[in-house]
Amino acid sequence: MAEKETEIRAVAQLADHVHWVREWPDKPTWRDRLRRWAYPEFYRFDRTATPPRPWADRPAGAYERTGWRIRAAYFGSDLAFEVEYVVCDLCEIGWVESPHSYEGYTRCRLASAALRSLRRYYPGVQWHTGGGHFRESEPFWDSVSVDVPGGYAQQERCHHVEPWRAQ
Question: The pTM is what?
């Protein structure tokens, strides 16, 4: 039982360490791949220890989502949480979609910490969602949207982010 409590406390610390974000390049370089192959011990984590940078910011990866990124939390080598986002610097508007906590990592404040982190990283940006909110997620959006410019209300993305909308 003590081991489970230790793990729960370690997961909860992820929310407190949201400012420790490692930036992933759009494509790993040959040096990145060589480092991972040559020094695999740096890529293995103790499941109960907080790694030096438990949060990652990486490209979304889908071809139709050019410019989108994912803010993700890792607990050891497990993916605990992720949210997709895109920011238009010209319009000063950001959109978040699909916040998702994986099994075993729900109710650990990871979603609200990730959104707070994005607001800090992009000051002065209004935040919205592209799609509607599920009825069961409305209490979550109501709680995280307090005093947030844009309030995570539904709004279509601008033509800078999705150029085909300008036509």
Answer: 0.73
Sheet-wide strand order for 21-23: 21-23, 55-59, 69-75, 78-88, 93-101, 126-129, 153-154
Q: Residue 101 pLDDT more than 80?
A: yes
Cα separations (Å) of 119 from 29, 47, 67, 115, 141?
29, 28, 18, 6, 15
φ/ψ of 44, rounded to 5, equals -110, 140
Q: Is the pLDDT of residue 111 over 80?
A: yes
Q: Can you say how many angstroms the Cα of residue 60 is from the centroid of all Cα atoms in its chain?
A: 10
Counted residue by residue, the chain has a size of 167
Q: Which of 110, 109, 86 is nearest to 96 (CA)?
A: 86
Nearest Cα to 128, choosing from 145, 153, 147? 153
CB 127 within 8 A of CB 112: no
Phi-psi region of 124 (alpha: psi -120 to 50; beta: other; left: phi over 0): left
Domains of the chain, start order? 2-166 (3.40.630.30)
